[in-house]
Structures are given as C-alpha cells and as structure tokens.
User: Fold this.
Amino acid sequence: MAAWREGAHALVIGASGGIGSAFCAALADRSDIDRILGSGRDRSRVPEAVESIVLDVTDPDSIASAGQAIRAATERLDLVICCIGVLHDADEGIAPEKRLEDIDPAAMTRHFTINALAPLLLARELAALLPRRDPCVWANLSARVGSIGDNRLGGWYAYRGSKAAQNMFTRNLAIELGRRHRGLACIALHPGTVATDLSAPFRSAASEGVMTPDQAAGQMVKVIEALKPTDSGKFFAWDGSEIPW
Ligand SMILES: NC(=O)c1ccc[n+]([C@@H]2O[C@H](COP(=O)([O-])OP(=O)(O)OC[C@H]3O[C@@H](n4cnc5c(N)ncnc54)[C@H](OP(=O)(O)O)[C@@H]3O)[C@@H](O)[C@H]2O)c1
Assistant:
C-alpha cells in the first residue's frame, strides 16, 4: 500500500525555508500528487509552484486564519510535512546555549512556541482534513539532537528541549489520531545536516556529510513514501534508519 492515494493533496508548512522549498520541488515532480499548498510568513518567499498560505505560528490569529484558508482550499490533506523551526535568530538575540548561564527565558519560550507548540496547534487545526481510512502521512521535521537517548554532548538547551517536546507531541498525535485515521503514519523526521540558513552558523566549508536541501528532501520523500500505518509514532532519519526517542 502506498503512503498516500493517487491524486493526493499535500501541505508543506514552512514552504519558504530551505528544506520546505526543496520538499515543494520534490513533490511537484510527482505524478501521484495533484495539489500542493505551502505556507510562509511572507507569501513572496513561498515557491511559485505551490498554492501559498500566509502563516506566522507565533500569532494564534494567524494559525486560525491559515487553518480557515486551508480548509477553504481543500476538503482533504493526504500528506502534511511540517518544516518550520528556529535554532538561532540574530534579530531576536537568539543563539544556541553553550552553558547554563546562557539560558534566556524569552529565547526558550520562542523555541518552544515555534518548534514544539506550533506543529501541535496546526494538527489541532487540520487533523479533520486527514482521510479516515485511506493512507496518509503527517511528518514533523525534528532533529537528532532532540533525542534524549542520543544526547551525549549537552548544550543547545532550548533547541534540544523544544525538539524533545515536539517528539513527545508527535508520538501523542500518532496515538490519538491513529484511532480515527486508520491509514495514518504520523512520524518525526531528522533531515540530516542540510545547507540552509538554520545550519549556516554551525557549518564550515570542511563540514562532512552536509546535504543540499534538494538531496535531503529527495531522501526524505523516499522514507515518507515507504511508510505504513505500523510506522506511526516512530522517529526516522533521512536515510530511513530509526532514531531512539
Ligand atoms: N538544516 C539542518 O541541518 C537541520 C538539521 C536538523 C533539523 N532541521 C529541522 O528541519 C526543519 C527545516 O529547517 P531548515 O533547515 O529548512 O531551516 P530554514 O531554512 O531556516 O527554514 C525554517 C522555516 O521555518 C519557518 N519559520 C520560522 N519561524 C516561523 C514563524 N514564526 N512562523 C512561521 N514559520 C516560521 C521559516 O519561515 P520564514 O521563511 O517565514 O522565516 C522557514 O520556512 C526545522 O524544523 C529544523 O529544526 C534542520
């Protein structure tokens, strides 16, 4: 069984980002996907090939109006990929913490709002559009550093903590939504290290194993299209290997 039906309707949340826009391009190449909606804070940064939705997840009114716009645009979503995220923001004075003394409550709150709470609120808005019986996918872009079991280096409190919280919410969603959407695979997905604005300050020219957004999206589409409902509630890396929570 494929992970979505022929003529699928897809939504890429964060279509303006490095990985989100690469997902839009990868999905646009597929003959089994009829429509792609994509969100961004600024409509002009959403790829032209997709139907744009304006969304700022720090604003509850924006989440509600984006939900309304998506429900007005389509009666179903067979594939949702949530690609929003924050790790640093010079304008907001946000940078990953190296030690306890670096912790800033405002930065912590922003991380949890964008990385953890937003995918959950969007699921609350949009879950009713998932098919009841047909195969479908909800994939939240997480990060390996959000794995508690895999944490050996410490640091990055806000990013690690917010991704760990996101992972718990993804697992909860897989359980709750799986009861009424029998064909659903709801997963967390680690994209690998990908050359985007988010990773830029932490990569050097010599960094090994860095993928382009197109390479990462291509790999992750392979993982997503092979999903079955029995994979729901799991945490996968870009190469299909499972990551401990
Ligand atoms: N790149 C990596 O190496 C890497 C590694 C592990 C995990 N990840 C995860 O992969 C996902 C995609 O990251 P990326 O590398 O593509 O980063 P990116 O290029 O910086 O894209 C981030 C996306 O998040 C959106 N966003 C940020 N704040 C928002 C807000 N308040 N409201 C709505 N959207 C907001 C951005 O929208 P705007 O365009 O409006 O700013 C953009 O679409 C993230 O969840 C990230 O944590 C990335």
